[in-house]
């Protein structure tokens, strides 16, 4: 509410301002496409790395393998176009699978996607910082700090709201696209003009000799690694609601542009790698990324090279933002179905799902700290989650068309093809990457499913328990027995006691004995200041109860007394009136014991249905 | 209360068990004497280090300088014996200075002592670990962790209570005394038998050539450094109450033994250093402590050497315990005079002043972390505090005897001599060590004085404000206006509403509008389930207030409404009844929003004298 909060997080937005926070394709591409586009920087590289043992011959395999990946991408594109159209309120894999296959399938997709988003965020940040660190080796010892710093910036931007997130990411994303597409066009022109045998502007490292023969297993591994380039395609369909009217059209337009750019990048990189004979280099010694070699080969190591490398670093690091745009939305949808705590579904002051952002930031931060900022080993884990979600979503779409009245044979075919292709790919990736880490996903998914089921069960049980469809019973309402702890006679006590009479005439004041001469002084005060005026006002005098405390505890004897009175009066309500001195300044709380607060908590935790706590504050003016 | 707490911290002790927790001289020496005795391990060393530039001639100066330190110690001893006798309830410098000179002098002594205790704890632990680390250099990188580990152990032992603290420290303390006194006696016998020119069992490093001439300033510096050996003498007088009957006699006995042992150690080390020509070594290269050289010279590097070095390390590290025994007691005395938060004066479950222990542990830990476990630079700071306290205490004693009826000329003379000697020493130490860090103490003391004054002022102001010596006014007690926030119709709501009628007939139910179709459903429920039965029971129906909330806030509109009702009814009390679902398991709290708790806090902080909060809990059984 203060101006500092406004300055940091932006002013609070009213519900009716939501429309203005919605985005079009120009902002949609950076927000929902960063993940998909940035994967062009590591997908081909991951595939080429596995081809190193094949030597010079290996590089030529990249073209057909990329071809198959592009085919899969095209199938996915048409599948998801249909999903966006059919689910204009956001058709993430969770929604589509749940509505068409069943709750279990929906939760399976949700668990897979949640894992995927956390991994995307961690791997994206870590890959960006990794690239930066290989460019500027002196930053090496700061790897983890850089990762956490970027995580903090992304978290902060997302807490400010979606529109601004889009604005911040527009420049690096478009710079990245311009540089890479430019390089590819330029490279293709050069290569075509050189009759398919272009001469690199700068010398490239020679391809190593072949050490192994090509095998079907190797090709499967390469394909599986290359599939990492496809994660993030789901993002747009999940976030349809974030687009401005006409939402479906804007979302489809955004998806189309993202997929076209991604295809150009993947195809161009693969073809140029082949004609320029660019293979991956050893990741440990004399490492140079494929994109770096490609840029040097086409354009040389000039200003353009450095601008391009800079944009790659930036986009990789910021690709984590896609996870931040989508993870909270996914959690919200699941929470609205009671499978996650409801707090994930409440929008914060800037119309974003604050809790989802916090949870993602914490999990990502934990992964980064755990892996010390180097998360290469996490890459195999996340293609599994993504393709599992793809499959469930497309299979759900097939059932969706079957249920929908009218002829949808063509639509069913498209989604069926998508489901089959992604299903096969899921099995291939799982098989190829099981030992390298995909087993973690296989273990984690059932755990998450169980947690979500338990959350739902708890909500249902509590809901059933408190549900009421009957009128209240206001007959025979009796005044409560009031118990008030009193340490000594002062204005705070006096005020609380007066309030006791406002709610009941049956008052018991409890005083914990100090075991010394102060007890009798208190009793004298009490009779003079409380009992006498009560009788004079025609009220029954409050009963004074002195409690012994051999262990110098103050709260326990009071607690025990309250529970005893409750037991002895099974039909009555017990109201515990707690006088509390409220200090003017927070630091004054250090000076006073917090007995009233502790007693409040104790009574709440150890209390029973018939015990009610009344807090009578007394405000200090000094 | 659980058995784990009992196991860790010992069972709770009743007030009547306090006597059994009191100690005699055997346990008193480790508890209150560790600080003083352990200083024999660094006092002479600190003095000899400053004599290095004088070369071989320098070592001979140690005998007369130690003589003057012993003289000062003797004066202090007789002074403090009298203090213990005159103040059997604990006559720390604070008490003596406050009662005899004035509040200001008392606080000055208290501030000086508090600084001193924190420094003692940090320097003791760090010196012990430093010695250990020079013996086992591979532990070097773990210095800070070792320091914090020892701090944790000491804190933990002290939280368990005094008697056990004594028991744990008995063995290392007596081992230390036995080893060192044994070495000194053995060394003196050898030296006397060799006609004052003993031959070391093992070769010692040669004394370096002289690089400077002796000067009065240098001698003053050496004396000031040697005075570090005297801190901790105050401890016994502060803790008289911890001794068993006869308390004064037991405390005096303890002090006598501590001082005698300390004098033997200081005198023996000085004399033997002179006859064996042992000087301090360069602290940076080829460092060996004076005690290590002395042990080698007298006994050789055998089992006895290692046992002795071990006991020295242990005693140094544990000397921090004296601070832990005394600092909480000092804080308690000051807190009882309202100069520190009252929580310092409440005994915990084991009859120790828990908060004082925590504060000391935190401050010591902070110093250790700040100085990375190497606190040599702190040593000059703490002699100033100790001697300032000594001076104020002895000066106070002089005035005490003047006020006491009867002839006390002899007593006055002893304490007057003590005051003069320690006063001069304070000025000497402050002058000699001002630039080396004593200025920090000079700056810190006024800050602490101001804080203590402010604390006292706050207690006085609040006390004055709430003080009441008049009877309560129980006339014209009116029932409160009850406001209860209601989100939807369920058993939690129903129960709270019934309680509303138990305390008042003027009830306003506030419902924050969601701005959608659920509002009208709620209104229908409300009229059917609440209004109709109220009228049927012959009660006025509760008024339903629907609040708009364009920013989706739930709590703020309720808060604003409560304050508005309060303004509109200046003569009425407003009772806000908050229904709250209490979960059976703590982890279920993650699943529900904490609106009731937040609203309780908001109402307490932003509320006014006329607003009372009533919490009606509903306990979930699942």
Q: Portion of residues in helices of chain A?
A: 55-70%
Based on secondary structure, the structural category of chain A is mainly alpha
CATH architecture of the largest domain in chain A: Up-down Bundle
Q: Superfamily at the CATH H level of the largest domain in chain A?
A: Amino acid/polyamine transporter I
Task: State the separation between the terminal residues of chain A, measured CA to CA.
Answer: 26 Å
Averaged pLDDT of chain A, please?
85
Beta fraction of the residues of chain A? 5-15%
Radius of gyration of chain A: 33 Å
Backbone shape of chain A: elongated
Q: Which two chains form the greatest contact, residue counts included?
A: A-B, 85 and 85 residues
Number of domains of chain A: 2
Question: Can you describe this structure?
Answer:
- The structure is a homodimer of 622-residue chains.
- By secondary structure, the first copy, chain A, is mainly alpha-helical.
- Chain A has two domains: 3-459, Amino acid/polyamine transporter I (Up-down Bundle); 481-619, 3-Layer(aba) Sandwich (Rossmann fold).
- Helices cover 64% and strands 5% of the residues of chain A.
- Chain A contains 21 helices and five strands.
- Chain A has helices spanning 3-9, 25-38, 43-51, 56-86, 93-100, 103-135, 143-160, 162-193, 216-226, 235-238, 247-275, 290-299, 303-318, 320-336, 354-370, 379-403, 409-466, 491-503, 518-536, 555-568, 595-606, and strands at residues 481-485, 507-512, 543-547, 574-582, 611-619.
- The first copy, chain A, has a five-stranded parallel beta sheet, with helices on both faces.
- In chain A, helix 8 crosses helix 13.
- The longest helix of chain A has 58 residues, at 409-466.
- The first copy, chain A, is elongated.
- Chain A starts with a helix and ends with a strand.
- Chains A and B meet through helix 17, helix 18, helix 19, strand 4 and helix 21 of A and helix 17, helix 18, helix 19, strand 4 and helix 21 of B.
